Amino acid sequence: MDDISVIEINDDADIDKIDVDKIDVDKNDVDKIFTFDDIGDKPHNEMDKVQLKFHQTVKINGDSKYEIDSLCVSDDKKLAYIKYSCSVIDMNNKDKKITLDLDNYGFYCTFNLKGEFILCNEEFVHITFGSHKIIWIYSTQTKNSKWECKRFYRIPEDYELISISKYDNVYLVSNDYIYEWNINTEKSVKIFCNNKDKNKVINIIKLFSTQSSMLNYN
């Protein structure tokens, strides 16, 4: 495997201000499109506009003292969740467990359109250099009940992860800016927001990232 790549943020490619009411949404992903007129005041009232259908149940194990930090489901019914460590279950194969060949601890996970599994965690590197947030990209071609890491990226210091879309767009926040960085093109866009707009945009990005990862499962 090649050395770890660092996400490079281009501060010159920017958008002065984002219109939070005109964020693009893939209409094929949802039965009904959300509206965000009152998202700041009534976040739970929007959920009744999405129609979900019950399919099957899966028992989630793990230490009861830890809560689930992140959960996602792939198109081929692989369930991944983080409860301190990351667990993957094949729902098509009697809930058989799948392991990761590298790190399985994290705080965020998702699947992209190519069927790759994406895990984010914070790795302790060195007593001098401290820890770094890492994005791990795994192939979901199962070999011996295991997924292999294909590549990984280091998130720059002072940047916090908001979410990663199924289109491989990584959303980061730092100070008064939100950054969209694409894993495939390695190009970034900087979006300036005041504090009120920034929080609203972050909530919308998180909402659609969670919604698409769950509703993309049939």
Q: Which helices and strands occur, and which strands form pairs?
A:
Blueprint: E1 5-6, E2 14-15, E3 70-73, E4 78-83, E5 85-90, E6 96-100, E7 108-111, E8 117-126, E9 130-138, E10 146-147, E11 149-155, E12 160-164, E13 169-174, E14 177-182, E15 188-192, H1 195-215
Parallel strand pairs: 1-11, 2-15, 6-10
Antiparallel strand pairs: 3-4, 4-5, 5-6, 7-8, 8-9, 9-11, 12-13, 13-14, 14-15
Describe the structure.
By secondary structure, this protein is mainly beta. The chain has one domain (5-51, 67-215). Helix content is 10%, strand content 36%. It contains one helix and 15 strands, in the order βββββββββββββββα. It has one helix spanning 195-215; strands spanning 5-6, 14-15, 70-73, 78-83, 85-90, 96-100, 108-111, 117-126, 130-138, 146-147, 149-155, 160-164, 169-174, 177-182, 188-192. It has a five-stranded mixed sheet with strand order 1-11-9-8-7, with no helix packed on it. The protein has a five-stranded mixed sheet with strand order 2-15-14-13-12, with helices on one face. A hairpin with a 5-residue loop joins β5 and β6 (96-100). The two termini are 34 Å apart. The model is unreliable at 17-40 and 212-218 (pLDDT under 50).
